[in-house]
Amino acid sequence: MKNRSVFKLGSLCAALTVPLTGAAQNLLEEVTVTAQKREQNLQDVGIAITVFSGDQVRALGVQQSFDIAGFTPGVHISGNIAGQNTQFSIRGVTQNDFNDIIEAPNAAYLDEGYLAVAQAQTFAVYDIERLEILKGPQGTLFGRNATGGLIHYISNKPNFDGTEGYLDFQVGEFDTPANANQMVIEGALGSALTETVAGRVAFRYKEQDGYLKNLYPDSAFLGPPGPGAGADLGGQEDKSARGTLLFQPDDKMQAMVSLNYSKSELSTGPYQSKPTIGILDENGELINVIDMPADETRFTIQGDQDGGANAIDGSSFLPGAGIGLPSRLAPGADFFGYIDPDGKDFTFSGDFAFEDQAFTETWGINVNLQYELSSGVQFTSITDFKDYEKLLFIDVDAAPANQLANYAGVDATSFTQEFRLNGETERTRWVAGAFYLNIDTTSDNGLKAPVNSIAGSAPFAPVDIGVVADLETNSYSVFGQVDYDLTETLTLTAGARLIQEEKDFDLLIAIFPSFDSFSVNRGEPIPNAFGAGSPYTNTDDSSDTLWTGKLQLDWHYTEDLLLYAGINRGVKAGSFNAPLLGAFLGAGGDESLPYDEEILVSYEGGFKKSFAGGMTRLNGTAFYYDYSDYQSFLFVGVGGVVQNNDARTYGAELELQTSPMDGLDIMLSTAWFDATVKDVPLRRGSPLPPRDVKPTYAPELQAAGLIRYQWPALGGDLAVQADFSYSDEFFYNLRNFDADKFDSYTIYNTSLVWSSTDSQWQATLAVRNLTDERAGTQGFDLASLCGCNEIAFREPRLYSVALRYEF
């Protein structure tokens, strides 16, 4: 019987260029990738690439775009809003500013369409053909902000081979006191419509209850912030659809038009609270934050002095004096006497917690035109437009004290146009092109002082302490890359991109009247709310000429062994901060708003080796990063700004994929790196010397593995699968304080799958997060505001059953 295991190494491919028949059925099939803007065998590309097929993505239980990071060592996640806004971190390259005027340093693409807004990196994954994860700078061919690398999702396309599709239904339950359920329905249908036109439609619907059980009003400090407060958190409803038409009038021309839409309705971000306490030096400077000792009641620890009833980090909120309390209300608690009832487990008490409070909505159109010229040169045009909207909320103290909430909203559009030519001669393969990008973003960010809140005694409460920022980016670039065969086994690659970057920026920081807990920054700003001269405004612009480049040698030492080494220069354009009020004032006002481009020079070498007649692949790489003006996000008090610091990173990665016998598949991979961001101050204007620190969301060691065995049984095939992902500890605040660190973790998943003989039916029993591990994802240090840190964890253990029909 032919081996149909989805994890047979050949199923990693985007296109199977060597069909398996007869005696060849156990050989490793070729994996075709487009990492260099043309189709190549994975083992012939001198780039550290991890590739997953659509079948693998599904078998690994990937539902959201960022889930794949757990199976790709060297790739992690960062972001904010307790996972509702998640970005990729690659080899320690990350930047977790929570304002959506930023672009991430690791680019994400869907069908060669750039996802320009940071929020857009969080999306539902469905009907995917494959995804390619490229590590290291990719600025020459992909260009846009890919200093750390990029993630490229490629969807299934229409074809002319007949009608095909699938319907997938899954139900599950989270193992928490909330007894939260999850339901997912997904499907696709594709067919030839005429001899020259084919179409495909796909959809996905997900409904999930809140898994974070809310015990509010337990320990309530003041009245609720509005009707419906105190809901369970983690719930969401997602609706996504994509439609694609393929036009192929002849064998030289192909045009593809794709429309996509996605909307999510979400609860308040599912953060929890842990009590923390600041450590001050003799001059009152915050030098560390630690987990709250069980018997401590002081606001902060300052030797044998006053216990810290003074301002911290330039915050406008004064512990003790500001809220009229002599000390914390309970030993080991936050400022207001709250201690999470079960620590890291999924029960808490929070007031600013609403069901269906937030949303994200995106739609777009992508047009891909390919035409073969008479000279044999391939012309490609990619036109992409996207529209983004969101409004997300979190409770700043993640506890029952009605203090402050944070909101993040965006209304943005992006338009990209790429023209590209690909060609080859006897000894060269080349690509050249031009690229244009426009991003028009309006960002609404800020702090909400709701009704009944501690700030309710202020003259204008309830209010929104709002930040409204407009940023328009226009970027123009030309690029080219050539592979030249010096000999039959030695190839030189050279490439470059020239970029002209134009930005226009407007900022308003103001206090607005607050009408409810579901809307922000409405009405006119309140004049002189901060004193004479407020609101604060700023208008600025920038114009920069940037460049990236690549020089590399690939040596095919044997048919089964590729050795490569090269130098790669990546760049991410400078931009502007849109900080919250406290961060704006604490960082120096207008002078803190602009920041410079970051430049990364990467030195990397590696190998790709096939063994055992193609049944095993072993790929490895080592790298050194030299960063100038790395864009790091320094969060202090209750806000932060992006600043420039030099940095360096060195590390290594290893991936093994093997099918040692029919039906058995094994994948193992690991990544290690050591990264340092240099001369980071404790805060802007701190009298203490700056320090070298670790970047945020950058575990030094990661590992992942999978074993799957499939055999004939029950009139079809049975497969049992187990996988794991390990992450070392990591900081979530650039100041690297002791309390601002998540512990290492290992997550295990397992599944049992039955497939019918004709592969049309598939039934799956699965357990995600088998040991119910508390794996930290995102956090914020708010020790000077509430005597606590916000922390969020990956979803708890999930039991699920799924049924799939393919035709």
From TrEMBL:
Residues 308-770 form the TonB-dependent receptor-like beta-barrel domain. Residues 42-149 form the TonB-dependent receptor plug domain. Gene3D superfamilies: TonB-dependent receptor, beta-barrel domain (2.40.170.20). GO terms for cellular component: cell outer membrane. One of its GO terms (biological process) is iron ion transport. Belongs to the TonB-dependent receptor family. PANTHER family: FERRICHROME IRON RECEPTOR-RELATED, TONB-DEPENDENT OUTER MEMBRANE RECEPTOR. This is TonB-dependent receptor. It comes from Kineobactrum sediminis. The lineage of its organism: Bacteria, Pseudomonadati, Pseudomonadota, Gammaproteobacteria, Cellvibrionales.
